[in-house]
Structure formats: structure tokens, C-alpha cells
Amino acid sequence: MRPDGRSLRPFAPPLLGEVERNLAETHLLDPDHPESMDEAFTRTRRVLRLALPYALSAASLALAAILLVRRVRRRVTSSP
Predict the structure, then answer these.
(1) Is residue 61 very low, low, confident or very high in pLDDT (cuts 50, 70, 90)?
(2) Which helix (H) or strand (E) holds 50?
(3) Rounded CA gap, 17 and 5, in Å?
(4) pLDDT on residue 29
(5) Whole-prediction pTM value?
(6) Phi-psi bin for 17: left (phi > 0), alpha (psi -120 to 50), beta?
(7) Cα separation of 24 and 30, whole Å?
(8) What's the confidence (pLDDT) of residue 27?
(9) What is the pLDDT of residue 38?
(10) Quick count: other Cβ atoms within 10 Å of Cβ 65?
(11) Rounded to an integer, what distance in angstroms lies between the CA atom of residue 39 and that of residue 36?
(12) Which helix (H) or strand (E) holds 22?
């Protein structure tokens, strides 16, 4: 039976899953150390900035190869 008004109850923290436990241990989302979160985003941006030209080059080469194969197939099938 609860008394009227406000009352205190003991806090029972929920069980953490593996992802939440890893985030808590690495301090990635720690509000007292926000620079760690910023460092993660900066590192990701740096990797993307360095890798993007290579990814675009690979994509353009793949597209050129596909177009070349289609062109060769068209010539082979249209030959008498």
C-alpha cells in the first residue's frame, strides 16, 4: 500500500545489452568527455574524405567496364 503523495523507491537499473555495455565502457556517449565523440566523427570524416576519390574511381571504372561489355555484346549479336 502506497502512501498519498510522493514517495521514494529504490532505483533498479535495467540490464544492459552488449552494445550498451560497450558504449558505457568506451565513454563514447559520456557527457563529461564530449571530445571523444567528436574525435570519432572527425576520424570517420577523415577516412571518408581520403577514401571517396578511390571509391568514385572504382565506380567509374566499373561503369565503363559494363558499358564496354554491352557494346561488345551488341556488336557480336548484330554481326551477320
Answers:
(1) confident
(2) helix 34-78
(3) 35
(4) 66
(5) 0.36
(6) beta
(7) 8
(8) 67
(9) 64
(10) 10
(11) 5
(12) helix 18-26
**25-46: pLDDT as tens digits:** 776 666 676 666 567 677 777 7
CA dist 15 → 1, 19, 21, 41, 53 (Å)? 27, 12, 9, 28, 44
Grid cell at residue 71: 557494346
Owner of C-alpha cell 568527455 = 33
Count, residues in the chain: 80
d(CA 44, CA 49): 9
* Exposure string for 4-39, b = 16+ CB within 10 A, e = fewer: eeeeeeeeeeeeeeeeeeeeeeeeeeeeeeeeeeee
Task: Quote the cell numbers at residue 73.
Answer: 555484346
Is residue 11 predicted with pLDDT exceeding 70? Answer: yes
Q: Which three cell numbers stand for residue 49?
A: 574524405
